[in-house]
Amino acid sequence: AAPLGVVGAAAFLSATPVEAKSAVDISAVRKDIANLIETDAAKRGDGTSYTGTFVRLAWHCAGTYSKADNSGGSNGARMRFNPEASWGANAGLGGARDALEPLKAKYPDLSYADLYTLAGVTAIEEAAGPTIPWRSGREDMPSGESSPPDGRLPDADKGNPPKTIEHIKAVFNRMGFSDRQMVALSGAHALGRCHENASGYWGPWTFAETTFSNEYFRLLIEEKWTLKTTHNGKPWTGPVQYEDSTGKLMMLPSDVALLQDAELRKVVELYAKDEDLFFKEFSAAFSKLLELGVPFPKAWWKFW
Length: 304
What we know:
There is one protein chain. The protein is built from eleven helices and seven strands. The protein is mainly α. The strands form three sheets. Strands 3-6-7 form a three-stranded antiparallel beta sheet. The chain has a two-stranded antiparallel sheet with strand order 1-2. A hairpin with a 6-residue loop joins β6 and β7. α2 packs across α5 and α7 crosses α10.
């Protein structure tokens, strides 16, 4: 994607945020998000839930950040407007935003930006994941006028492993993450699944898609991943993806590519063996992701 030009940068700086109030019972919001996930999962009755989708919502809300000009990021919640709402990378997230609307109505002083990021944090914690440091204070933009250019979110495939690795490293480095933090954040694929009507890909990464664990890394290392050629007894016509020996689990080209880079593979192997380490490093990286570009007030002692 082209860098944010002069006009785009001016729009980013001139857009007036809608300030969110602080008098919101965050613990009550967390409980309502958890109840929403649980109630919806019970209605579905198929082992799926909003868990992975809420994590993706928070991730994509924040993952547009660029440290070069401090543009993008979760502050503003611009993804509820075009152009971000119609980006291909955000396909399927409209339903997650709609599901959270009753909570926005119940807590009008909570910004959408705080709600979307808190939904992701709560989803992880309710799925037996680590505690994620999170604080309120994000503001909402009144339109998508200050949205960054499309192309900042990672693609699952760039044609071959070297190009795919180069791409995802560039995406995460642009935000200020190390390669190790990039691998840690990839572990969010322990949750949820891909949907053909959204990304074109199909299937879950693990057999426990509503439980946060290091299973994604263990499976990536221990299973034999082969190109998917059939689906429900018919030829697979979707994009390139990989499947395990059962045909019930999937990996994206960007997942398998982590094994093709010697240094990244070392981190994958480390997390596969040590879930506590993965939880610790994921928690720090995900919290950082959600705060990128957010102008939180500085504590008084940090002014000196």
